[in-house]
User: Fold this.
Amino acid sequence: MVTADATQPRHDWAIGEIEEIYTAPLLDLIFRAQLVHRAHHRPNVVQGCVLLNVKAGGCPEDCAYCPQSARYSTGVARGELLNVDETVAAARQARDQGATRFCMGAAWRDVPHGPQFERVLEMVRGVRALGLEACCTLGMLTEDQANALADAGLTAYNHNLDTSPEFYGRIITTRTYDDRLQTIARVRKAGITVCCGGIIGLGEDRPARWRLLQQLSMFDPHPESVPVNLLVRVAGTPLAERPPVDPMELVRVIATARLLMPASMVRLSAGRLSLSDEAQTLCFLAGANSVFLGEKLLTTPNPEVDADRRLFERLGVRLQTEGTVPPAPTYAHE
Ligand code: SAM
Ligand code: DTB
Ligand code: SF4
Assistant:
């Protein structure tokens, strides 16, 4: 008789199961998530990542949340691709701040071929040479580009699903959900780890959140990294006036992600400035184990370095000091 192995990651979560997890009494949900979290991760360690916008603004896409789309007047100036030296200098500074992962973002629909791509490859080599994990988010990739990034030593590629397949068309019309899935498949095939998550607060309902989480958990293997972004409402974008999300919903999303994808890094990404220390603490308790450090995300503000230092000190949480979390200790007491 074949029995289901409860210790094996699952890729076939039914929407009904996800709904049941997500809508459980919050304290039960957090307790369950904490048990799974402790079986796979060190409970008092958080990974610090730093973002750098290596190519700002002027993006042809129409992502309704994004201040870097050329279609909206948000005051973000279109910039040139940074040079390798300034990028590596920023990565060194990130390392000095305690980050172990450095993420380079470009406001591109897809990656240009030629000298600009060569420069990105050089940036990746430079960041890796500092002993940091290197992540890029550059838009859609061809197979050749994914392979070249892998050869340069890229650790991870970030390409989000953002929301459910059904709600997606209300947020982005210039490229499809399938386009995204294809880029993610190319990243996986090239041997780069996948960083893929979404945004909460776009106007999606709970079932849309469940569908996003289901889509993420269907990847086999799961994305090694799952960023959960809370919408940063930027004046000039179509979503500027969206009502704020109840932080308890964010906690539910994080706890559900932790339960569906036990070994993945769940990253409390954009939106921390709109959360209290207590709400962030609940997010960590629910299974978030990474944040962006530094006063700026790509174009929007993030908590001050000192504020984060104080928060971690109050919690007795320490920043991860090595690049990758070692595999699954069964019980972690650290
Ligand atoms: N252009 C590339 C792309 O779209 O894949 C890379 C950069 S893009 C800024 C990366 C991700 O940032 C988006 O997929 C989205 O999830 C997130 N993001 C962008 N603007 C945001 C906002 N205002 N609030 C929260 N997350 C945001
Ligand atoms: C992700 O999921 N969140 C980060 C990273 N991937 C690139 C980006 C957040 C951007 C927030 C809006 C801004 O600062 O422009
Ligand atoms: Fe362009 Fe990425 Fe912003 Fe969409 S999210 S407008 S693709 S920079």
